[in-house]
Amino acid sequence: MNLFLKRLRCFRQLLRQQWLSPEQMSALRRRRLRRLVRHAGRCVPYYRRMFAQLGMRPEDIRDEGDFRRLPLLKKTDITAHGLRPFLSEGYDPARTTTVMTSGSSGRPMTFIRTPEEEALGHLTYPRALMANGVRPWHRQVVIMPANRLSDAKSPLGALKRRWKLFLEAGPASDRQIEVLRAFRPSVIRGYNGNLQMLAAAIEERGITDIRPRFVFGTAELLDAGARERINRAFGVEMRDLYGCSEAHCVAWECPAGEGYHINADTVLVEFLRHGRPVAPGEPGRVVITPLHVFAMPLLRYEIGDIGIPLAGRCACGRGLPMMKMIQGRSDDFVTLPSGFVVPPVGTFADVFEARPDVAEFFLLQEKKDLIRVRIVPRGRLQPDTLDRLQRDIEALTRHEAVVEIVVVDRLERPPGGKIRRIASRVPVSL
Ligand SMILES: [Zn+2]
How far apart are the CA of 409 and the centre of ligand 1, in A? Predict the structure, then answer.
């Protein structure tokens, strides 16, 4: 019960904090950042060594400007060194929780947190849901990969299962659809890729009676076509939550519809181009520092996404800063031999969406000048489809790359339930 009260207090604090003025929010973030950096510099071997090498003391980091003097942390830094140097001394390993990423965008990564840090991080999601109108008594269906279903076991057991149902992610099935119809949830949450497949299956079957009040997607890039399909199938305007295993919910769409609110009280988000902060309105690599994780601090961690910071305040009145539509993971961007960068949104996806006879596609930039495409036809392909796709993709790549299109029966699905539709093996030059 004590733990329950503690979480309730944490949640009330989160609810209050979102209404702080931007100035109060920056001050809070700065305080938390200083505390985290001092802790990391003193108690975490990796950072202790880093400060020594830089000839700096943790106390020298007083604000975000000072903080930018620290190097970025890449996923490969963690895999190269192993977890041990990143773990805080004085934490009992028996009392920590191991969190794994799904590895859909590379190798799976492991992170360590205390159960309290994990619980606080998870509370950032209900805050976003509540801001959008969800209430605790609304019945929810959560679609998640099988390897995460074990996390879904609730201490309240059967009681909780009456209003919250977990469905295994994967190719949409009749059973999934039947469960949704029978349970009649007010809220459906899931990975965008899974929601999209489910939406397609619902539309194909002509089903119009799955009508939740809210749909929340997360994880993959959400292009306009996918969003529209999900909205159509469920008869509701979905909201996207931008989150990751490393920092929980990072940013979320609010009902005012002006972009994503950054959870600035739990995570510091930087947008960088060539190592420097971009101006508002410009795309940059997203670099995060979770402010609530002390067991294994991640300072300036490059997450692999591209986002756009926005100036100004949202019409809803919240003081949380804004960012724009996630333009995609950085490994979804196609960088051409000339250095021209093609974002995945509003380009390739639209070309495929325009062809109703293409059920699914996967576009992979193998090399700078080679694009391989696999498509799964819906029924029989129109005679001009392959030519049109070839022409349109060549035009989008400014004729700088060879485009090879292959028709296949099905696409291989990666474990974890996430589906990539556009990917590149060439690092983006941002
Ligand atoms: Zn807002």
Answer: 43
